[in-house]
Design brief:
This protein is of the alpha/beta class and about 675 residues long. It folds into three domains: about 30-120, Chitobiase, domain 2 (2-Layer Sandwich), CATH 3.30.379.10; about 125-460, Glycosidases (TIM Barrel, Alpha-Beta Barrel), CATH 3.20.20.80; about 500-545 and about 580-655, Alpha-Beta Complex (Alpha-d-glucuronidase, C-terminal Domain). It has 20 helices and 13 strands. It has helices at about 1-15, 45-55, 95-110, 160-175, 195-205, 220-225, 235-250, 280-290, 315-320, 380-385, 400-405, 435-445, 450-465, 465-470, 470-495, 530-535, 560-565, 575-580, 595-615, 625-655, and strands at about 35-40, 65-70, 80-85, 85-90, 115-120, 125-130, 180, 210-215, 260, 295-300, 330-335, 355-365, 415-420. The strands form two sheets. Strands 6-7-8-9-10-11-12-13 form an eight-stranded parallel beta barrel. Strands 1-2-4-3-5 form a five-stranded mixed β-sheet, with helices on one face. The chain is globular, with a radius of gyration of 25 Å. Bound molecules: alpha-D-glucopyranuronic acid. This is Alpha-glucuronidase. One of its GO terms (cellular component) is extracellular region. GO terms for molecular function: alpha-glucuronidase activity; xylan alpha-1,2-glucuronosidase activity.
């Protein structure tokens, strides 16, 4: 019996069975009505996909004719499209596919189809998979890799292909057009013939959906894989090696997208090992890729133990290099200066590089935001970053506009999200983590889109039926409260874990899940330990990044630098990010810092309890399986929130010596 069960489970996870078991993300089958699709005379895989999607999902007038038309329209940008009641027009085949999905989404979410143009904010919209060649996934909470397998078997099965196609279809439905299929902590093996052969097969499965494949490469590959004496970017043999390797890649995969590189960071090799700069390293690869139209996405996530304030390092290393990168290099910058924390101010590199293309990197996988246990909808966090005004080219120079080509002329533009996808049957570990994949795609397409609209769309597509969408009670009893829940969930996570600008105080022993402000074994690098970041002591708490402290504040353009530098004007959200303040510091609310901190932790706990009630009330509108799973996870999340609150308040109380305010639930 056990064996049978085991084999069923196995099939359910690694096979293409997802189509039958209901885990179809936001792409559930709908009872469609007949439609006639008229398209360009030429046939191509992409056009066939567009046609098939329309035929499978049409909800409009029965027997209608939809025209897919390739055009040359200057108002349409990149793979954008023009929609009207008659059909879709686009300059590219990808555009027709996105238009087809756009049309279906409007039908399925009950929106009218009006004449409109929809252009993507970014030319390249990519997922970064931190998948290792052995099938494990760094910071992955949804099972093993969908691309690589532990047994190193390079046999590509029908199941593999089916899975990759479903994955690509989901990406295409939200406009994502690229996938970096391996970890930024890359293995040189990725560029070996055997791995390239599997990469080619993956590219083949993704191509009909317009998703290009990219690889993360290890900078020392010439030495490690090629057997050269060095990987010095200025060495002629190294240059030759990369050119030959790139040629080999394009022979296998003619539409290969390019390389992502994590170099001279967290122990990864890089140009600095040879006394060279990031520009030397990036340009070497860019030069090799350029004849084929390939890109280099060079990451700015760099820090070393030597720096006194890790938050400053990327800016210090990259700003002096502005203008020195080839135009097919894009600097890939995490939203905040430290590392995907629940809340950070935007990275000061946004807008500061004026002659170099910069792209935002967001983390979809919830490393510091509850992993696959806690329900945290990330669109509000990304929106907060994208809408932050850098002031670098006057008011209105938001992160969105500084990266999409609106403020600075740049040849290419892109946005990347670290994927949360794995072999789990629901793809993302938590059913609601699917919403973050969806949200990332939608924001990469339109960086002005509001989180509320994204939440509304995702809930309708994932949980609603046509009948429910038409019924008022579904709106009032499911859609409205669940939208509220999604929109509040990120702030709740900030409240119960790292409020008021606290950051990096998570547990290291539990893989970054749960609290750990005390963590710091003897001999450990200080900048990996929470006490380095919160600086709690009898005289107060917080990291002093003011002009009197590390001076990280000066990396922001005025008026932000002055605003952040002064505790009276610094937003509460970033207070302890920029300031070390006494426990009895008077907050804008009139309360002391200590009381305010305690109230935020307590509020976070109460918010999660409210989410539990909202979900319990949603029971009639959700299938039993998902209802029970999410209900259980919310229970665990609620416990996690209490743990955060109690652990942090009791830990900090050792320094503050102040009582827990009466309104706050006493620690257990
Ligand atoms: C974080 C994460 C690492 C990852 C790194 C990166 O530090 O914990 O697993 O390698 O970010 O983005 O490179």
């Amino acid at each position: 019996m056990k064996k049978i069960l085991f084999s069923i489970c196995l099939l359910g996870t690694v096979s293409g069975l997802r189509a039958e078991d209901g885990h179809q993300l936001w792409l559930r089958p709908h009872a469609s009505v007949p439609v006639k699709v008229v398209g360009p005379a030429k046939s191509s895989a992409l056009l066939a996909t567009a046609r098939q999607e329309l035929q499978q999902g049409w909800q409009g007038t029965a027997g209608a004719t939809v025209t897919l038309k390739l055009t040359k329209d200057k108002a349409i940008k990149y793979d954008g499209f023009r929609l009207n009641a008659q059909g879709v027009q686009a300059n590219t085949e990808r555009g027709l596919l996105y238009g087809a999905f756009g049309l279906l989404r409007r039908q399925q979410t009950g929106q009218a189809v009006a004449e409109e143009i929809s252009n993507p904010s970014y030319e390249y919209r990519l997922l970064n998979h931190w998948d290792n060649p052995d099938g494990s996934v760094e910071r992955g909470y949804a099972g093993q890799s969908i691309f690589w397998r532990k047994d190193s078997s390079f046999v590509v099965t029908g199941h593999d292909r089916a899975l990759w196609q479903q994955y690509a279809r989901a990406n295409a439905s939200v406009g994502l057009n690229g996938a970096v299929i391996n970890n930024v902590n890359s293995s040189p093996l990725m560029l070996s013939a055997a791995y390239l052969a599997r990469t080619k097969a993956i590219a083949g499965a993704l191509r009909p959906y317009g998703v290009r494949v990219y690889l993360a490469v290890k900078f020392s590959s010439p030495a490690l894989l090629g057997g050269l004496k060095t990987s010095d970017p200025l060495d002629p043999a190294v240059i030759k090696w990369w050119h030959a390797k790139v040629k080999e890649v394009y022979q296998q995969i003619p539409d290969f997208g390019g390389f992502v590189v994590k170099a001279s960071s967290e122990g990864q090799p890089g140009p600095q090992d040879y006394g060279r700069t990031h520009a030397d390293g990036a340009n070497l690869l860019a030069d090799a890729l350029r004849p084929y139209g390939g890109l280099v996405m060079w990451r700015a996530f760099v820090y070393s133990p030597s720096d006194k304030d890790r938050a400053k390092q990327a800016y210090n290393e990259f700003v002096p290099l502005d203008g020195k990168f080839l135009d097919n290099v894009i600097i890939q910058v995490k939203n905040g200066p430290i590392d995907f924390q629940p809340r950070e101010p935007f990275s000061p590199l946004f807008g500061a590089l004026k002659k170099t293309a910069v792209m935002p990197e967001f983390q979809i996988t919830q490393e510091y935001l509850g992993q696959a246990i806690d329900l945290v909808f990330l669109a509000p966090m990304w929106q907060e970053c994208l809408r932050s005004d850098t002031h670098q080219a006057g008011p209105g120079s938001t992160v969105a506009r500084c990266t999409d080509g609106s403020v600075y002329a740049q040849k290419h533009s892109a946005m990347a999200g670290v994927s949360n996808v794995g072999l789990d049957t629901n793809w993302t570990g938590h059913d609601f983590a699917q919403a973050n994949w969806y949200a990332f795609g939608r924001l990469a397409w339109n960086n002005q889109l509001d989180s509320r609209q994204i939440a509304d769309e995702w809930l309708k597509l994932t949980f609603g039926t046509a009948a429910q969408l038409a019924a008022a009670d579904w709106d009032a009893h499911f859609l409205a409260p669940m939208t509220q829940l999604l929109l509040a969930s990120r702030e709740a996570a900030v409240n119960y874990s790292m409020p008021l600008g606290l950051h990096h105080i998570m547990s290291a022993t539990h893989g970054h899940y749960g609290p750990g402000p005390w963590w710091g074994p003897p001999g450990m690098r200080a900048d990996w330990t929470p006490p380095y970041y919160h600086q709690a002591a009898a005289n107060g708490v917080g990291f002093d990044r003011t002009t009197a402290g590390s001076n990280a504040v000066s990396q922001y353009h005025e008026p932000l630098a002055a605003e952040f530098n002064n505790p009276a004007t610094c937003p509460d959200e970033y207070l302890l990010w920029f300031h070390h303040l006494p426990w009895d510091f008077k907050m804008k609310s009139g309360r002391t810092l200590w009381d305010e901190l305690a109230l935020h932790y307590d509020h976070g706990v109460r918010q999660v309890r409210q989410f539990q009630q909202t979900w319990d009330a949603a029971r009639p509108y959700v299938d039993a399986e998902r209802f029970a799973v999410v209900q259980n996870k919310l229970r665990t999340q609620s416990g996690n929130a209490v743990l955060w609150k109690d652990a942090c308040l009791l830990y900090f109380q050792q320094f503050s010596h102040l009582p827990i305010p009466a309104e706050v639930e006493p620690p257990m």
